[in-house]
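tool_call: predict_structure(chain=1)
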Amino acid sequence: MPQQSVTFRFLAEPTDVNFGGKVHGGVVMKWIDQAGYACAAGWSGHYCVTVSVAGVKFRRPVLVGQLVEVQASIAHTGRTSMQIFIQVRCGDPKTQHMVETNHCVISFVAMDQAGYPIDVPEFVAKTDDQKRLEKYAIRMKEIAIETENLLQQTADKG
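tool_result:
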């Protein structure tokens, strides 16, 4: 049975921060990509590449010394693609009280050894939560495609 979710837990380090003393958004994006990759590779059993990230909004900063949790879960699959819901939470390591800092949907495509897309196992949403996340992931995938099409149309006119 393929692995459906992955959770990374670690402490935010001083090397992760920007000049304002908060963890860089780019560092958070790196964590998102790493957890997403681990989930996609675990589900597909193959090397995977990032295709897009949709719906990222930073709600609150991550501070040095906070416990960080990055949870990645399969939300939807296509023939060769996987949409993975990522939730980033942080909190005081002494209390373990965690709050969401951001979430998003990241899309990956599984690749064979020659670098071509390869089929992935189908994900079937069973619980109400899984069905809600799948609907959200599908919409985020559609928005990413619409955004790319709009960019292409704009570039073609220039």
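agent: The first strand starts at residue 5 and ends at 11. Proceeding to next step.
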